[in-house]
Amino acid sequence: MTKVTIKEVARKANVSTSTVSRVLNNNYPVSEEVRDEVLRCMKELNYQPNGIARSLKNSKTQMIGFVVADIANPYFMQIAKAMESVISNENHSLVFCSSDGIPQKERKLLELLNEKRVEAMVIASSDPDGLYIKQLVDQGMPVVLIDRKLKGVDTDVVVEDNFNAAYQLTEYLIKSGHRKIAIINVALSISVGLERFDGFKEAMKHNDLPVEERYVFKGGFTRMEAYHAAKRLIVENQNHLPTAIFCANNIMAEGAVIAVREFGMKIPDDISIVSFGTVDLLELIEPKLTIASQNPYAIGRKAGQIILDRVNHDGNARDFKEYVITSDIIIRDSVQTL
């Protein structure tokens, strides 16, 4: 007689194999209803768990999963480096994955990490709903969200002070005499995009300036998306160009600068540009951009410390906290005083 597998139990109970495993090992919370159904299916199928396999599954892997939206963004690489410097002190390793900003890919990566039995996860999510992340948290997986918050997901969070930094950066443009200010933003479905846009709008409102729809562009998260957004901004507003562009992240600033220069425009003589975050590609080129500084190293270290604390001491405790890393406005040479 063929031995019944855990996959067959999962299929019959209409749950994932990891849920069946949790019922077997009793290592993560599972609802009573789901537990009863899994146990019923095990009994009905006469499933016999492998004792050796179970002992292996109960061992700790000392692996921490890290899922980001864009592995090519130096911001996330610096966070990873800082995290690794913390967790490696206690012999933990980082498993680094990139979702490319695609929610479906993100979920598959999270499922894979869960199957590989990582002890905790650090996530910069691209999924506006975060339903699977909520499921992981509810099942007892230690999770730290970085860079982006998720509504309805109660867990530890380490983020930038996006609203205030965007407000201050916009305020600097206004105090420099700019009134027609464009913004190339990330998706508003992601908290970081919404908070930075809200900060931008609030600064404009505080100074009795309109946020004109023709000057609001979505740049996505890639250099190419921002490049095309900046080109559309210039082409569609040839007769009423803005005097300044606010780029809501570092990668988009790269794309915007490339587009502006392709049109033969000089920064800041013809148009001023500011960026949220350091633009590594442009650091060796003049003029250097005025920016709202970011501190990925502080974010990475804090995330690493939280994860180790959760893994070593209170992984299932519910006293979650939100840590906010403040920003400074670094004034350089990319803004003309009007």
From TrEMBL:
<dbReference type="Pfam" id="PF00532">
    <property type="entry name" value="Peripla_BP_1"/>
</dbReference>
<dbReference type="InterPro" id="IPR001761">
    <property type="entry name" value="Peripla_BP/Lac1_sug-bd_dom"/>
</dbReference>
<keyword id="KW-0805">Transcription regulation</keyword>
<feature type="domain" description="HTH lacI-type">
    <location>
        <begin position="4"/>
        <end position="58"/>
    </location>
</feature>
<dbReference type="GO" id="GO:0000976">
    <property type="term" value="F:transcription cis-regulatory region binding"/>
</dbReference>
<dbReference type="InterPro" id="IPR028082">
    <property type="entry name" value="Peripla_BP_I"/>
</dbReference>
<dbReference type="InterPro" id="IPR010982">
    <property type="entry name" value="Lambda_DNA-bd_dom_sf"/>
</dbReference>
<keyword id="KW-0238">DNA-binding</keyword>
<dbReference type="Pfam" id="PF00356">
    <property type="entry name" value="LacI"/>
</dbReference>
<keyword id="KW-0804">Transcription</keyword>
<protein>
    <submittedName>
        <fullName>LacI family transcriptional regulator</fullName>
    </submittedName>
</protein>
<dbReference type="GO" id="GO:0003700">
    <property type="term" value="F:DNA-binding transcription factor activity"/>
</dbReference>
<dbReference type="InterPro" id="IPR000843">
    <property type="entry name" value="HTH_LacI"/>
</dbReference>
